């Protein structure tokens, strides 16, 4: 959704549920369909609203099309603020490496 709307929008997963129907012992696939009308409607709604939410239902299927699980996702969408549009991450921030393992005490 974020790629289709463009870089001026933020898209977050807000809620997700999954219903397992069969064990997934093989590669499973998800197919997403977003129409131009749906994307245009969302953009138009965000011209006057601060945010919008959409709920999508997606089936996880095997190569033969057999449904193994059904997901329901609620997506939160909003336009980026001017500050978010102008923000550029500093190169030194990207180089910071964080470790979950504490370092050894100084000798």
Question: How would you explain this protein's 3D organization?
Answer:
The protein is an alpha+beta fold and 107 residues long. It has helices at 2-5, 36-48, 82-86, 91-94; strands at residues 9-20, 29-30, 52-61, 67-79. It has a 4-stranded antiparallel β-sheet. A hairpin with a 5-residue loop joins strand 3 and strand 4 (67-79). The termini are far apart.
Radius of gyration: 20 Å
**What's the shape?**
elongated
End-to-end CA span: 51 Å
- How would you sum up the major sheet? 4 strands, antiparallel
Mean pLDDT: 83
- SSE succession: HEEHEEHH
Uncertain ranges: 88-107
- The number of helical runs is 4
Summarize the structure.
By secondary structure, this protein is of the alpha+beta class. The chain is built from four helices and four strands.
């Amino acid at each position: 959704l974020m790629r289709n709307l463009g870089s001026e929008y933020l898209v977050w997963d807000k809620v997700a549920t999954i219903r397992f129907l069969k064990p997934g012992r093989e590669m499973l696939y998800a197919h997403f369909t977003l129409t131009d009308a749906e994307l245009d409607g969302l953009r138009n709604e965000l011209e006057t609203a601060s945010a919008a939410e959409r709920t999508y239902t997606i089936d996880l299927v095997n190569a033969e099309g057999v449904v193994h699980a059904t997901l329901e996702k609620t997506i939160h969408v909003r336009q980026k603020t001017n500050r978010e549009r102008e923000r550029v991450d500093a190169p030194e921030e990207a180089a910071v490496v964080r470790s979950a393992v504490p370092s050894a005490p100084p000798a």
